[in-house]
Amino acid sequence: MRKVMTRLLTLSLLAAFAGAAPLQSQTADAAKAPKAEQKARKLSRAPFKGKLKAVDKTAMTLTFELKDKSRTIKITSETRFLKAGMPARLGDAVIGEEVAGQVIKNADGTEEAVSVRFGPKPEAKPKKEKDSPKKAAK
User: Fold this and answer.
1) In the predicted model, is pLDDT for residue 87 greater than 70?
2) Which residue pairs from 72-77 have beta carbons closer than 8 angstroms and sit at least 24 positions apart in sequence?
3) Measured torsion, CA atoms of residues 95, 100, 105, 108, in degrees rounded to the nearest 10
4) How far apart are CA 96 and CA 74, in angstroms?
5) Which of these, 49, 51, 50, 57, lies nearest to 91 by C-alpha position?
6) With the C-alpha atoms ordered 46, 56, 120, 79, is the resulting torsion angle positive or negative?
7) CA 108/CA 2 separation, integer angstroms
8) Please, what CATH class does the domain formed by 44-118 belong to?
9) Given 14, 51, 83, 124, which is the most exposed site by the fewest CB atoms within 10 A?
10) CB 114 within 8 A of CB 59
11) Contacts with 33 (C-beta within 8 Å, 6 or more apart), sequence order
12) Which pLDDT score, from 0 to 100, does residue 3 have?
């Protein structure tokens, strides 16, 4: 009787571990899927630049004019806004000013804004040149 119980216990433990192994691999695959999707999304980024034509806060879109056509992009909760080099909000947009940034093309063909800059590009601060020790010694 004791041998039968030991065998049953051993078989049930083996069955439990065998059943858990596929679950672990599925969990690992599921963890890799979002990373692969994020990497693919990063590769599909494209810049945009134009003059702001319209802001629709209810539809969460920005429409801007290029040289000969208009283009509309979606805004999400993850979209970053800048104005004059400082963080901004969608409400800081002024119709007619320059707008630029990066978009991601979704599978359905829509474009989603990753970052948006309102107004002209801020000038880069000049780098300070440090005095080298050789010049100081002379």
Assistant:
1) yes
2) 72/111, 73/48, 73/103, 73/111, 73/112, 73/113, 74/110, 74/111, 74/112, 74/113, 75/112, 75/113, 75/116, 76/112, 76/113
3) 0
4) 19
5) 57
6) negative
7) 64
8) mainly beta
9) 124
10) no
11) none
12) 73
79 in Cβ contact with 86 (< 8 Å): no
Q: Which helix (H) or strand (E) holds 50?
A: strand 45-56
Mean pLDDT rounded to a whole number for the chain: 78
With left for phi above 0 and alpha for psi between -120 and 50, is residue 134 left, alpha or beta?
alpha
Q: Which residues pair with 86 in a beta bridge?
A: 83
Domain borders along the chain are: 1-43, 44-118
Place of tokens 């040289």: 67
Q: Which H helix or E strand runs over 26?
A: helix 2-43
Q: Which has the closest alpha carbon to 105: 55, 47, 62?
A: 47
pLDDT class for 62, splitting at 50, 70, 90?
very high
